[in-house]
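Hey,
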Amino acid sequence: MKSNIVRLMTEVPLESLHASLDSPVSASMNFLNEVALHYPDAISFAAGRPYEGFFDVDTVHRHVETFRAYLGERHNGDEALVQRDLLQYGRTKGIISELVSEHLRVDEGISVDPEAVVVTVGCQEALYLTLRALRRDDRDVLLAVAPTYAGAHGAASLVDMKVLPVRDSEEGIDLADLAAVVGKAHEQRLRPRAVYVVPDFANPTGTSLSVDMRRRLLESATRHDLLVLEDNPYGILGSEARLPTLKSLDRASRVIYLGSFAKTGVPGARVGYAVADQTVRTGFGTDVLLADQLAKLKSMLTVNTSPIAQAVIGGKLLENAFSLRAANDRERKVYHRNLHHVLQGLEERYPPGTAPMVSWTTPTGGFFVLISVPFALDDASLRHSARKHRVLWTPVHHFYADRRPRQQMRLSFSHLLPKEIEDGLDRLSEFIHEQIEIGGVC
C-alpha cells in the first residue's frame, strides 16, 4: 500500500547555531579532505599525516599485550582487575599517566608529577579543555603567533575565546609585538590569559625557537602574567640535537605542556595529554592542581580516554624504555629524507636570483615547509591546482582563520615517497609558472 504520509523537513538556520559553525576555520579540515577525495590522482602536499610505511596491526596487538602484562604485575596477577582497567570506563585523568610522566623525563627532561598529567582524546581535546578552563568571560583572550595551527583557532572558537594575533619573525615570535598586543588588550579592558606557541617545527611555517628565544619568551610571559601553551607534536622528530622544551626550562610554572602521540605513537589511537601542574586556589583552604580542573571538564565532555587506546600507547612506551625518540628512529630518517628532497627540489627548480621569485622556509625537522609566491592563493587556486595540475597544497589563510588570500602555501611532505615528492614538485612548478604568466588569476 502506498503511503500518503507527508514528512515536513525541519529547517535549522545556520545563524541560529553556534557562531563557530559559520567561522572560516570550521570548514578548513572538511574542505581539504573533500578536495583530496574529489581528486584522488593528485599528489597531496596538503595532509600533515605521519608516514604509513611502518604501520603494522600486529604491533598494535603486541603493545596491548605488553601493557596487559604491566597491569598484571601492578595488580599482583589479579586478572579481574586487569580486565577492568582495560575494558571498563577508566579514570578520567587516564591509566597511563605514570608512563607519560616517565616518557617526559626520558625524552624531554621534564620532571612532572603523574597527577599533573591528564590523558586526552588527542592533543586537540587537551587544547580545548585548557582554553575552556581559562576562559571565564568575554574579557579573556588568547594570544597566538600568526600564522598558527588551525586547530588552535578552532578550539578557541568553540569556547568563544577571541584570538589576538602576534607577529611572526625569523626567530619564531616577535616579542616586541607580543608586548604591544598585551598592552593594547589591557587598554581595551581585556584579559590576556595565555600565548599559544609551537616552538619546534611550527605548523605551518616549520620555524623553531632558539634556546635564547625560549628563555626570553618565558621571561616575557612572567613579565606580562601570561601562561604559555606549549604544543609539541613534532619536537622529537628533528634531525638535529633536541632543543630543550619550554616546559623543561620553566621555573615558574608558566607552561602548560600539550603533548600528542599521534605523530610518534599510533595516530589511530588518538591519545594526547596535557601537563598542567599550576596551582589553583580554591578559596576553601586547600589548593589543587590545574590538571584536576581539566579533569572535571573532561568528565563532562568525553568522560575518559579509551583505555584500550591508552594500552596501545602504554605498551609502546614500555617496549621502548619510555623513549619515543628511539622508537621513531626509522620514521625520523624518513622525515629527514623527505625534507631534504623537498628543499633540494625547490632549490633546483627556483635557483636564487632567477624568476619566478619563489622563496621558502628551511626547517631542520617536522612535517612542513612554507612557500612564498608572487601571487595570491585561495581555495579556488587550490581547486584549480588539483583539477588541472593534479597537486594539492594548503592555502595559508586557513592558518589565519579568515578567507583573505595570501601569497603563501604550506607543503607537507611527511607521508610521501621520494618519487611522489619529485613528481609533485614538478606539477607544483607548472602551476606556479602558469599563475605568474596569467597574473595569478585561474
